[in-house]
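User: Design a sequence. Structure:
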C-alpha cells in the first residue's frame, strides 16, 4: 500500500504515468483499509471490479456520475480511511452552487500540490514574483479559491489582501430579477478594492471577468490598476475572446494576463503559455495526471471529439483525498492537443453548456 500512496502523492515535478495513477487510485479508494465509506460501499453495486477491471483513463467511463450525491453525503463518508488519524481534520470545500445545492469535497493537501504547479505556470507567463502584494476579489469560505490564492501569495512573497464576496447572494439577486441589488453589491466590492489599491503596493490582482469589466468602467480604479498591477489572474466565470483581448490589450496592457478554469470538483486548470500554432488565445491545462478533462460529443457521450472540436467537459479527479472518475460538467469547450511540457489535453473557448435541464446563472463568479 505504501507504493500506492507514493504514486498518488508524487511531487508535481516528478509525475507518474496516467495508467499508474488510475491503477493506484482504484487500489487506494476501493481497499477497505484505505478507501472511503462512500466508495467502498458503492463497489458492491458496480457491474465491475474497480481494482481489477479499471486500468486506463478510458475505463473510467464505466463509472456513473456520482457528483450529485456529494451535495448531501456526510463528509465523514468521503474521507479515505488511509488518511484518518493524521492529527488534523480535513478542510471541506463547497462548489459554487451554480445549478443547485453545492457539492462538497474533503482536502488534506491535494490543493497545495496543484497550487505549487500553478505558481510555476505563472512564472512561465511572466507574472511578477516577490515584488508587491496580491489583491484578491473573490469568495473566501466555503469556496477553495481564496485558500489557493493565499497559497499563491505566500509562494510569490506577497501579502494577501482579500475582498470577500458571496457569489451565491449575487446569483440569487439575478435569479429573482434584482439586478439593481447585484449592481449595488458590485459597487460595494469595487469601493473596497479601490481603498486597498490606493494605500498598498499591489502588483498581483485576482478578479472575475465581470468584476474586471466593472473595474474598467471606473476611471480612477482602472487607473490605479494600470499604474501598479503587473499580473492579473482571472477565473470563476467564462470570458469570451473579444472581452479578453480588450481587457488585456487595451484596458490593462501593462499587465500579464492569466486565466484559471476550474472548480471545487476538479481543482484548477491554469492558462498555459502560448506556443507556435495555437489558434486560441487562452488554453487551460489541468493538473495531469491527477485531473483529466475529456471533451465528449454532447449527442453521444461515448465518443470523444477530435482536436479542434467542441465537446462537453467530462472531468476526472484521481487524488489521495478525492476520487471522481466521471463528472459531466456544465461546460462546453474546444479540445486542444498536448504541447511540450504539458501532458494531457488542454481546453479552450470554455463556456456554459445548457441542455434544458437546469438554469445556469454565472453572476460575478
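Assistant: Done.
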Amino acid at each position: 500500500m505504501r507504493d500506492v500512496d507514493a504514486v498518488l502523492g508524487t511531487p508535481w515535478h516528478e509525475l507518474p504515468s496516467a495508467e499508474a495513477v488510475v491503477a493506484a487510485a482504484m487500489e487506494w479508494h476501493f481497499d477497505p483499509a484505505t478507501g472511503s465509506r462512500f466508495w467502498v460501499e458503492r463497489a458492491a453495486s458496480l457491474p465491475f471490479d474497480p481494482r481489477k477491471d479499471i486500468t486506463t483513463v478510458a475505463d473510467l467511463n464505466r463509472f456513473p456520475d456520482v457528483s450529485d450525491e456529494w451535495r448531501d453525503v456526510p463528509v465523514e463518508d468521503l474521507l479515505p480511511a488511509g488518511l484518518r488519524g493524521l492529527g488534523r481534520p480535513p478542510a471541506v470545500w463547497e462548489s459554487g452552487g451554480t445549478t443547485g445545492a453545492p457539492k462538497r469535497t474533503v482536502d488534506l493537501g491535494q490543493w497545495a500540490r496543484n497550487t505549487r504547479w500553478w505558481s510555476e505556470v505563472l512564472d512561465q507567463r511572466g507574472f511578477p514574483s516577490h515584488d508587491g502584494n496580491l489583491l484578491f476579489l473573490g469568495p473566501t469560505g466555503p469556496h477553495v479559491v481564496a485558500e489557493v490564492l493565499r497559497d499563491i501569495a505566500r509562494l510569490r512573497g506577497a501579502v494577501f489582501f482579500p475582498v470577500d464576496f458571496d457569489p451565491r447572494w449575487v446569483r440569487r439577486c439575478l435569479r429573482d430579477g434584482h439586478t439593481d441589488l447585484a449592481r449595488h453589491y458590485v459597487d460595494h466590492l469595487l469601493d473596497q478594492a479601490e481603498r486597498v489599491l490606493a494605500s498598498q503596493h499591489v502588483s498581483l490582482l485576482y478578479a472575475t471577468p465581470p468584476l474586471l469589466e466593472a473595474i474598467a468602467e471606473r476611471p480612477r480604479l482602472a487607473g490605479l490598476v494600470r499604474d501598479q498591477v503587473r499580473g492579473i489572474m482571472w477565473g470563476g466565470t467564462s470570458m469570451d475572446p473579444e472581452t479578453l483581448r480588450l481587457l488585456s490589450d487595451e484596458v490593462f496592457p501593462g499587465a500579464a494576463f492569466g486565466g484559471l478554469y476550474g472548480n471545487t470538483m476538479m481543482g484548477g486548470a491554469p492558462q498555459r503559455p502560448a506556443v507556435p500554432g495555437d489558434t486560441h488565445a487562452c488554453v487551460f491545462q489541468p493538473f495531469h495526471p491527477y485531473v483529466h478533462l475529456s471533451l465528449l460529443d454532447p449527442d453521444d457521450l461515448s465518443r470523444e471529439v477530435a482536436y479542434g472540436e467542441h465537446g462537453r467537459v467530462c472531468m476526472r479527479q484521481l487524488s489521495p483525498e478525492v476520487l471522481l472518475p466521471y463528472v459531466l460538467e456544465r461546460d462546453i469547450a474546444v479540445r486542444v492537443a498536448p504541447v511540450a511540457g504539458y501532458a494531457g489535453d488542454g481546453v479552450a473557448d470554455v463556456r456554459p453548456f445548457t441542455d434544458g435541464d437546469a438554469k445556469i446563472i454565472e453572476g460575478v463568479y
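The mean pLDDT is 91. The chain is about 35% helix and 25% strand.
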